[in-house]
Design a protein that fits this description.
Layout lengths: L1 H26 L4 H29 L7 H29 L10 H14 L9 H4 L7 H18 L10 H23 L2
Amino acid sequence: MQAIFETLFDIVYLVTVVILGIRMIRGSRGRKQYLLFGIMAVVLGCGDAFHLVPRAIALCTTGLENYTTALGVGKLITSVTMTLFYVLLYYVWRCRYQISGQQGITAAVWVLAIVRVLLCFMPQNEWTSAAEKQDRVFRFLWIAVVVSFACYIPVVLFAETVPAAGMLMIPKTCAYVWVVLIGYRAMKEEKGK
């Protein structure tokens, strides 16, 4: 039962984020933030596929223990693409709110991008600009990022010893889809203006 549910869930997730990403890339029409959002979604979906496809094959055939190499490589690729996902989200924020200044990517930006993305979308912060506080479409983006991390961290820390912790990948994945849908909705609303 787990194999069927998990495989179907992963297929819907991967197809959804990649299709939405491609639609954002095609529909961006020179609007950098939506081009970045689309690339971000495609990177997320394609990167996660390197882990989820071997996992689905393993679950539906001979078991996870027979696919350790493919799953290990998939986890490595997914961790790299997840980092790119958050760095691209950082640049979406920079474009959306016209943040100027130092453009160079340093190691600190890569590490702090995730924290900044999380913090910059929290509407109650004093450093949040008036434009950010009034941004109706992006107002819940920070919650989606919090949910993704809150669900992912226990999996990384405890999935080997507490396999049930792996179930947290479902809400984490839903949070990723939520992030992509926020960008897609913003693009569609802007297009309608």
